[in-house]
């Protein structure tokens, strides 16, 4: 019994030290708080100093790509009196900090209504200073945005090939098609799309016409590459990516231009139109 306890204790120590040596995201991120303070104080110089110039920060606002001045100008023009933020993600990814937040913004402009934004920030340490290297801002999104990314939409142990085979028979019996959703749990827009599938104007279309299979691409988009090739998914256009197949698995259509890569910025009518276009005749 004593040896068992010693062995269990040793395992616990190994697990503890492995956890302790793994970089853990801080509950708060000081550079973001500095950025937020500059926004609320309207300090243009302080705000501008937080954006990378070499290389220049890449900014996208409501699907329009531009430079840092666009993001800076967006926040300064509204002169926010308050901004209640909800952190969706704060973790290291590919050598930088991926920081995604949702914010309820009270503008300082007369008669301007409160609005919501989602901002996806990538921070990188340059010398002794953390700076923004990329920003994706969505103003007043039309699709519901996730408050966290904890839902396991793409289980790591799932067998996509087996799931496709299983639903093919169901689809054939119900005269449906397959909707194959390629993505990963780390993908914010994959969570937006998952929430969109639950909308009352979208869920009935899915239930009546499709069997949905979520295909995990893994942390580095290295999984299920044969299915990516078979269903002609251009991963260089981003994820989530959708393909429609007949009940025998034959490809009907796949998106070619990253139409759902920025799901956070889409209108529900866009998704409804896609599903209606490719549903069984």
Taken together, the total number of domains comes to 2
CATH architecture of the largest domain: 3-Layer(aba) Sandwich
Q: What is the helical fraction, as a range of percent?
A: 25-40%
The protein's oligomeric status is single chain
**Shape, principal axes of CA atoms:** elongated
At CATH level 3, the topology of the largest domain is Glutaredoxin
- Can you tell me the CATH superfamily of the largest domain? Glutaredoxin
Query: In what range is the share of β-strand residues?
Result: 25-35%
Spans of at least 5 consecutive residues with low confidence: 1-26
> Treating each run of at least 4 consecutive H or I residues as one helix, how many helices?
9
Mean pLDDT: 90
Give the C-level CATH assignment of the largest domain. Answer: Alpha Beta
Walk me through this protein's architecture:
- The structure is a single chain.
- With 281 residues, this protein is α+β, with helices and mostly antiparallel strands.
- It is built from nine helices and ten strands.
- The protein folds into two domains: 30-139, Nuclear Transport Factor 2, Chain: A (Roll); 160-278, Glutaredoxin, CATH 3.40.30.10.
- Strand 3 and strand 4 (96-106) form a beta hairpin.
- The chain is elongated, with a radius of gyration of 22 Å.
- Strands 2-1-6-5-4-3 form a six-stranded mixed beta sheet, with helices on one face. It has a four-stranded mixed beta sheet with strand order 8-7-9-10.
């Amino acid at each position: 019994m004593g040896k068992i306890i010693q062995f269990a204790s040793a395992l616990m120590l190994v697990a503890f030290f492995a956890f302790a040596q793994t970089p853990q995201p801080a509950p708060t991120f000081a550079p973001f708080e500095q950025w937020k303070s500059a926004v609320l104080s309207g300090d243009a110089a302080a705000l501008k100093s937080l954006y990378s110039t070499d290389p220049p920060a890449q900014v996208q606002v409501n699907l329009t790509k531009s430079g840092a001045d666009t993001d800076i100008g967006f926040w300064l023009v509204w002169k926010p009196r308050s901004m209640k933020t909800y952190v969706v993600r704060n973790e290291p990814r590919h050598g930088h900090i991926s920081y995604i937040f949702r914010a309820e913004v009270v503008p300082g402009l007369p008669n301007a209504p409160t609005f919501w934004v989602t901002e996806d920030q990538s921070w990188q340490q340059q010398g002794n200073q953390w700076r923004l290297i990329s920003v994706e801002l969505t103003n007043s999104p039309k699709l519901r945005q996730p408050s966290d990314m904890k839902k396991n939409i793409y289980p790591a142990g799932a067998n996509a090939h087996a799931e496709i085979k299983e639903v093919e028979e169901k689809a054939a019996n119900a005269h449906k098609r397959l909707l194959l959703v390629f993505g990963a749990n780390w993908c914010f827009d994959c969570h937006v799309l998952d929430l969109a599938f639950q909308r009352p104007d979208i869920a009935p279309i899915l239930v009546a016409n499709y069997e949905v299979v979520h295909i995990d691409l893994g942390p580095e988009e290295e999984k299920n590459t044969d299915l990516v090739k078979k269903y002609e998914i251009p991963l260089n256009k981003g994820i989530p990516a959708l393909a429609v197949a007949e009940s025998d698995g034959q490809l009907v259509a796949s998106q070619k231009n990253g139409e759902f890569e920025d799901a956070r910025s889409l209108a529900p009518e866009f998704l409804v139109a896609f599903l209606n276009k490719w549903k069984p005749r």
